[in-house]
């Protein structure tokens, strides 16, 4: 039986393509489908889209001009940064009508001011490059996450990314002072102000942060910098229970809240997968545990005795029976090795087999109940499945993931994805939490929004979208339910 022919993609009008080529130059318009392949599937492999063209403007002016042309022609646009979205937020659909607009060439750091403690970075700057540039100026840009070698400044702002240091420094929104962005019709809003206080009308920049590219396209941002750490201490702890992990967090917070840079929870199942699949990963404590936390302390004071603080708090927790064992890093290599045990959780799950990911948050006080109840409910839903909870206990954001039962067909397990997410979300709702903590809504979760954020709240979102994007051309199908 002959193969079914693949239908041709809808072509952009020749006059529009000519205008885009004239505006963006030979490097700015990509139509060869072979070159588009890396931009048509997401990191998790959940979605594969189609697109007639990839646009790569090299300046805000070029991007604005391209948006004007596309807006006039009625062509939908999907902004794309590092393409590390966990919810398909940067994916075109399968229609072949949506143009991808890459921010990769807007990659300059325009300014660093160590007195104002600010950096002006374009949207295509890789997060790790922004961290390195800040360090080169004797400062710290603290946003840190697993995809920081690929994720971009525009993407982390568009999704209001969280990461490992939220407990100390806040989400991406808290690290942004000013924003330059382009509206769907090509209008440019230049709000690159370095002010800590600026109460002059609506804070439009905050509409863009977390909107996932549905209201405008971030082109540059003024970012907050901090003094670089001069003292650090890190430990991996084995604990008796989820409640013991929360109790340990409270001990550190009550002793010196400003010293806690990260407090990361990991379950025994997840650690087992890391040790099984990640080459060179080793457990620095004597015996396996069902619960672990990574404690990361930092201070800009060179005389801060963080080692003494760490030892004193852990001694209290050991005497109380909360901590059963702990290992303190004695070198930079050991510090990196401990952090690697946490950061490799997603990759280890991927290598083990199929997994369903739920990025949720609850009040910090309810994190132990979340982990325990979700684990019980998920194992009852799919016997033999393995809950893999890990994440940011210090800010209430846990990745409540579920690994397939050993030997189960991956496709059959993934077919239960919505059942699994619903199971987790039922517990989250009962604990007054959120179904989307730091990954966003994207293409994966808009159907949940009406149930969780319905009524006047959702209607207000729809009105804002209609006011700024009346044609519905910017990142369609994301965030808001259709």
TrEMBL record:
One Pfam match: FAD-oxidase_C
Keyword Repressor: no
UniProt GO molecular function: catalytic activity; FAD binding
Key words of the record: FAD, Flavoprotein
Region forming the signal peptide: none
Family: Belongs to the FAD-binding oxidoreductase/transferase type 4 family.
Cofactor field: FAD
All copies of domain FAD-binding PCMH-type, residue ranges: 47-228
Lineage start: Bacteria, Pseudomonadati, Pseudomonadota, Alphaproteobacteria, Acetobacterales
Protein name: FAD/FMN-containing dehydrogenase
SUPFAM superfamilies given in the database record: FAD-binding/transporter-associated domain-like, FAD-linked oxidases, C-terminal domain
PANTHER family: BLL6224 PROTEIN, D-2-HYDROXYGLUTARATE DEHYDROGENASE, MITOCHONDRIAL
Gene3D superfamilies named among the record's database cross-references: 3.30.465.10, 3.30.70.2190, 3.30.70.2740, Uridine Diphospho-n-acetylenolpyruvylglucosamine Reductase, domain 2, Vanillyl-alcohol Oxidase, Chain A, domain 4
BP term (GO), one: respiratory electron transport chain
InterPro entries according to UniProt: FAD-bd_oxidored_4_C, FAD-bd_PCMH, FAD-bd_PCMH-like_sf, FAD-bd_PCMH_sub1, FAD-bd_PCMH_sub2, FAD-linked_Oxase-like_C, FAD-oxidored/transferase_4, Oxid_FAD_bind_N
């Amino acid at each position: 039986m002959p193969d079914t022919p693949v239908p041709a993609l809808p072509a952009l009008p020749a006059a529009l393509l000519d205008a885009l080529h004239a505006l963006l130059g030979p490097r700015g318009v990509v139509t060869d489908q072979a070159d588009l392949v890396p931009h048509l599937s997401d990191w998790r492999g959940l979605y594969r889209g189609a697109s007639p063209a990839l646009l790569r403007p090299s300046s805000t002016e070029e991007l604005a001009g391209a948006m004007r042309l596309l807006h006039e022609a009625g062509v939908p646009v999907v902004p794309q940064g590092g393409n590390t979205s966990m919810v398909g937020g940067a994916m075109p659909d399968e229609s072949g009508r949506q143009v991808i607009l890459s921010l990769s060439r807007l990659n300059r750091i325009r300014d660093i001011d160590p007195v104002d403690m600010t950096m002006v970075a374009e949207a295509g700057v890789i997060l790790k490059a922004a961290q390195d540039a800040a360090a080169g100026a004797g400062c710290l840009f603290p946003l840190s996450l697993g995809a920081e070698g690929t994720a971009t400044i525009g993407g982390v702002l568009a999704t209001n990314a969280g990461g490992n240091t939220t407990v100390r420094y806040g989400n991406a929104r808290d690290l942004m002072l000013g924003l330059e962005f382009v509206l769907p019709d090509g209008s440019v809003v230049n709000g690159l102000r370095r002010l800590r206080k600026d109460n002059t009308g609506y804070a439009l920049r905050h509409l863009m942060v977390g909107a996932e590219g549905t209201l405008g396209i971030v082109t540059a941002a003024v970012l907050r910098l901090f003094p670089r750490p001069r003292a650090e201490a890190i430990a991996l702890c084995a604990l008796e229970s989820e409640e013991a992990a929360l109790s340990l967090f409270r001990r550190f917070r009550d002793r010196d809240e400003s010293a806690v840079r990260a407090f990361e929870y990991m379950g025994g199942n997840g650690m087992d997968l890391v040790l099984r699949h990640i080459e060179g990963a080793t457990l620095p404590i004597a015996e396996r545990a069902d619960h672990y936390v990574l404690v990361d302390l930092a201070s800009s004071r060179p005389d801060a005795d963080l080692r003494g603080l760490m030892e004193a708090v852990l001694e209290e927790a050991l005497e109380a029976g909360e901590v059963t064992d702990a290992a303190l890093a004695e070198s930079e290599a050991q510090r990196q090795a401990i952090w690697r045990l946490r950061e490799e959780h997603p990759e280890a799950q991927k290598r083990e087999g199929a997994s369903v990911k739920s990025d949720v948050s609850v009040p910090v006080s309810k994190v132990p109940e979340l982990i325990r109840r979700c684990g019980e409910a998920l194992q009852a839903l799919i016997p033999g499945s393995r809950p893999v909870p890990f994440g940011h206990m210090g800010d209430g954001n846990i990745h409540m993931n579920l690994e397939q039962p050993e030997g189960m067909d991956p496709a059959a397990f993934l077919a239960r994805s919505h059942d699994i997410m619903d199971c987790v979300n039922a517990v989250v709702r009962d604990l007054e939490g959120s179904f989307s903590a730091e990954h966003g809504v994207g293409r994966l979760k808009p159907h949940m929004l009406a149930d969780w954020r319905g009524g006047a709240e959702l209607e207000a979102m729809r009105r804002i979208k209609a006011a700024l994007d009346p044609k519905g051309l910017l990142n369609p199908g994301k965030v808001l339910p259709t």
